[in-house]
Amino acid sequence: MSFLLIINSLECGGAERVLASLANEFSSHRDQKITIVSLDSEESFFPVSPDVQIVSVTGSRFLKGPLKLLAIPYQSFFVSRIIKKTKPDFVLSFLHRANIVNFLDAHFLSRGRAVFVSERSVLSKSYSGFKMLLFKKLLKWAYGHADKIIAISRVVKEELLALGVNDDKIVIIPNPVNVTTHKVYSQNFHVGLPLKIITTGRLVPSKRFEQILFAIAAINKSFMCTLDIAGNGPMHDYLSDLAATLQIQDKVNFLGYVSNVTEILHHYDLFVSASEYESFGNSCLEASAAGLPVVVPSGTGGIEDIYHFSGQGAVFYPGGDVSALVNAIVDMYENNRFHVYGVQGHEHSRKFDIKQIADNYMQAVSE
């Protein structure tokens, strides 16, 4: 059996990580023939098995901004040529531009084949203005003709339904995590201070990192804790200045971009998120796989698809409520719940192991 996987690029990102993980799982353990078509560049940030063939669309790597959209017809033609050459049993695409390319090829060029796409974003939060109108039109048209749409969470499925996609075309398959590769936090209980907290993500307003800084300032009035922030983004200077204003600059460390956060998670005691919304919550799941308890906001969508209740390794607090965030962290410390929640989260993360998720993908495209 053979797969053709289409994606915008193989740069660092959640969709790229999932595609690389699935490609490796299929090729290494299932004797599948896998071809990846990258619309922009064949250079992969994530490790990809040498058994997986990677092909990039000639000339597309030099296109920027709106020109990438104008290149979609050409990219569809290129994909059609690859399909004729490799004759895959299934074609699956990731991310909006790749999904449109997938549909155009199936509808106009490689007629008669099935169209499988992976939808990974909350559309209403992804675009604005003209770009929102354009993508809503294109995706409604494309997804209306898809055979199966794989949504990564309930909130993503709800967005698809609002777009007009038929319910029977949608299947929810969460993102995977490779539990066996994580270095697991091994302390039976937290010993001494400071309490070491980590959070990750792009430094943008929707992640609400400033709320975590306010919480760290409040907690340090009772006991010492530190915060490491892994990620880059336009709010770096603002957050750095805020830490100085709150007089916690010596307690907060901006790590910048970290190529493999899973390698350092086991050095911390607690993972915290304050996101306004998440289509899934990859960083939270990675923390649980590493055996860290997580403190996360309610009402964010995708995170609540991972942890249905607090006994699965997560403590929820009302999103946007800094006092509630402070109380959740203080309660975790004062009642020494790190080990209990860490073990629960690690065991819960096994439900998202790459082998299980790969089986779910196989079932979805084979039905």
Written account of the structure:
It is built from 14 helices and 13 strands. The chain is α/β, with parallel strands linked by helices. The protein folds into two domains: 2-172, Glycogen Phosphorylase B (Rossmann fold); 179-352, Glycogen Phosphorylase B (Rossmann fold, 3-Layer(aba) Sandwich), CATH 3.40.50. Strands 3-2-1-4-5-6-7 form a seven-stranded parallel β-sheet, with helices on both faces. Strands 10-9-8-11-12-13 form a six-stranded parallel β-sheet, sandwiched between helices. The two termini are 15 Å apart. The model has no long low-confidence stretch (mean pLDDT 90).
How is the topology of this model organized?
Elements: E1 2-7, H1 14-29, E2 33-38, E3 53-56, H2 67-70, H3 72-86, E4 90-94, H4 96-109, E5 116-119, H5 123-126, H6 129-144, E6 148-151, H7 154-163, E7 170-172, E8 195-200, H8 209-219, E9 225-230, H9 236-245, E10 252-256, E11 270-272, H10 282-289, E12 294-298, H11 303-306, E13 314-318, H12 322-334, H13 338-349, H14 354-366
Parallel strand pairs: 1-2, 1-4, 2-3, 4-5, 5-6, 6-7, 8-9, 8-11, 9-10, 11-12, 12-13
Helix pairs in contact: 1-14, 3-4, 4-6, 8-12, 10-13
